[in-house]
Amino acid sequence: MSAMQPHNKLYRPIFILCFLLSFSLTSQAEPHVPDEEQPIHITADHLEVQEKTGISTYTGNVNIQQGSLELTGDTVTIIHPDGQLEMVKAYGAPAQFKRFSQVEQSWINGQANLIQYNTKYKTILLSGDAKVMQPGKHTITGSNIFYDVSKQTLMAKGSKDGHNRVSVTFKPAPSDDKE
To answer: Which residues lie closer than 8 Å to 79 by C-beta, 6 or more apart?
Structure first.
């Protein structure tokens, strides 16, 4: 049996190398994990938690990240009854969000006085001087903008009094004409 030990010692580094190579190749082949399935990370200057009501209030330079989705605000209220995250409300002048669209391979940015992120339905509602931009493509403004993260659909509304109507600006694609 002692004759087998040197033989095993010789193959051990080769086995480890093959194992590591196979692991790195399979991890590169794994599909992209959607933002809504990734953990949520929060930083702020101050936190107050009310366990009985399931409400946490973060104040001062609040930053929330979930995958490529980033939400910032002056004050953020998180509603989490029974320990289950339901709603995130970001208040700011303005509160802002950004998310990388895997479909279009570009960033989507938004801002409003209030941004509500519903984790159950994976939706974002921007209220008060709302604006959503896809740099180099378009800008949408209105009183309220509703964005469905999973479906990547958007609806905008103007104010009821008609003063803050929906506005859309499209940037044309660059022309290939060189005449």
So the answer is: 54, 55, 85, 86, 87, 88, 89
In a domain, 25, yes or no: yes
Do both 162 and 104 map to the same domain?
yes
Under 8 Å between Cβ of 78 and 103: no
Confidence of residue 13 (pLDDT cuts 50, 70, 90): very low
What is the domain extent for residue 55?
35-170
pLDDT, position 179: 52
Asked if residue 179 belongs to a domain, the reply is no
- Asked if residue 92 and residue 17 are part of one domain, the reply reads no
SS3 (DSSP) at 166: coil
Contact 154/168 with Cβ under 8 angstroms?
no
Return all residues near 89 (Cβ < 8 A) that are at least 6 apart: 76, 77, 78, 79, 114, 115, 116, 117
Q: What is the pLDDT of residues 69-80, one digit of tens each?
A: 899 999 999 999
Res. 16 pLDDT band, cuts 50 70 90:
very low
Q: Is residue 64 part of a domain?
A: yes
pLDDT greater than 50 at residue 17: no
Q: 48 and 66, same structural domain?
A: yes
Task: State the total domains in the chain.
Answer: 2
